[in-house]
Design a protein that fits this description.
mainly alpha; elongated; single chain
Length: 60
């Protein structure tokens, strides 16, 4: 069995390696401040006839 400090060093090394891989991965940032805010209108008709569910069978 390894001494506890060796195990902790291995964990820290793995954590640093994971952070390095995550930082190297391409990332897309969305500017949320520029998006218009959406407000829910409580007076709007909730029974919209265009609203529904569509089921698509991809295996059949």
């Amino acid at each position: 069995m390894l001494p506890p400090f060796i195990i902790e060093q291995i964990r820290q090394r793995e954590k640093r390696e994971q952070q390095r891989r995550d930082n190297a991965r391409p990332r897309l940032e969305v500017p949320l401040d520029d998006l218009p805010t959406q407000h829910h209108d409580p007076d709007a008709n909730e029974d919209d006839p265009e609203r529904g569910v569509v089921i698509v069978d991809l295996l059949g």
